[in-house]
Fold:
Amino acid sequence: MKKFLIYFFTFIFICFLMPAFLTKQDKPVNSEEIEENSEKQENEESIAEDIPEETKYNYKNYGTIQLLHKKTGVVENVELDQYLCHVVSAEMPADYELEALKAQAIVARTYTIYKANNKKHENADICDDSACCQAWVSKEDRLARWEESKRESNWQKIEQCVKETQGKIITYQNEPINAFFHANSGGTTELPVNVWGGSGFPYLQVVQTAGEEGYTQYASETEFSNEELIKKLKTKYEDIQIDFGNNEEIKILEYTDSNRVKTVKFGNHEISGVETRTIFGLRSANFEITKEADKIKFTVKGYGHGVGMSQTGADTMAKQGSTYEEIINHFYVGIEIKEINSL
Structure:
């Protein structure tokens, strides 16, 4: 009997009690907790989809530049492409074609790197003064100058053209070029030697650009009375003397290959077209002179020094279907567009 009871209790233990001990008891989860966890997971997945994948160009060099703010003297370290958004928005109208803006972004990037390699400022790569380097404007100031309805879309367009050309620069013989640009060529660009002297650059040649006539920068007129003319000339030439009754006393003597004024006679002085432009505040050195009674009129074509890429010319080409590569190759001769990291 004793033996029977041992077998009986052993059987009960194996069949009923042991499975109860070995079975894992999960903590009960109510329906609200299940719903909350499910919702949290869905939200995290949704947020992840909204974050775009970063495609920042990894600059081996020049990823950050030193920008001198001329008015304050402060030197700021800024990311190159972020800096370029401020430059492009300052230098070219946002309503220009996207391919023209892309060309401007590459030109500005190239110009920045050229300046960094050929430092003019002791503690900075480049400054924000357009008369010295290239224009720069803060985002806040730029947005304030645009119509409110266009602010967001304009800035997004500027960022797009910079982002889609990341790392691209213009090279000649595997070196960044001195990528000059200007507003309107008046139909023909100019050689740098005729503006600044020196030996010039082989990639900056005279090229024709059609379709710039429709822009406000193309044509302008400036008039001076005889007295005003003398007064302005005396700021540089105190001994100036002009016989306004003699038609030979004021006349253009020589033109450059681009039809800009090379030399003009004012009485007892012969002055370059570039200096004449500076003295009288003309938009370009592509001008004609006419005399009307007691006034002298300058009829001007174009806006700027005329060297390198014409911005209105770039926009014209883009409207006609040209890509930024075609625009750049039109204005800069014998060049290559390369990734800066490949240099």
